[in-house]
Fold:
Amino acid sequence: MGRDDLSETTAERFFEVEMRVGRVVTAEPLAKAKTPAYRLRIDFGEHGLRHSSAQITDLYAPDELVGRLVVAVTNLPPRRIAGFVSEVLVLGVPDEQGRVTLLEPERDVPVGGRVH
Structure:
């Protein structure tokens, strides 16, 4: 991918996106999802508990997710997915097979911390 393939944004617009670190409290299959997904409950410290739907079933079992730090976009409007309201977007990167690997801090950091 060359530089011409990327659309540009401004620093101001980028910083409008609020990304925070949270700790997964619960993870369970989202039964009604068309594509296999988990219902995650994530603790963002003083920013509260939030829910997310995450299509990460290929690489993670629910018990591997509980206690894990994740990075999520926290200022998107809620979205109804398979009868479930997802309040944050957990971030990850797909590998060559399309399996999503979660973005996570390298070290233990406070939950609710803003990503810069």
Observations:
- The first strand starts at residue 19 and ends at 29.
- Residues 15-102 form a domain with the OB fold (Dihydrolipoamide Acetyltransferase, E2P) fold (CATH 2.40.50.140).
- The mean pLDDT is 95.
- The chain has one domain: 15-102.
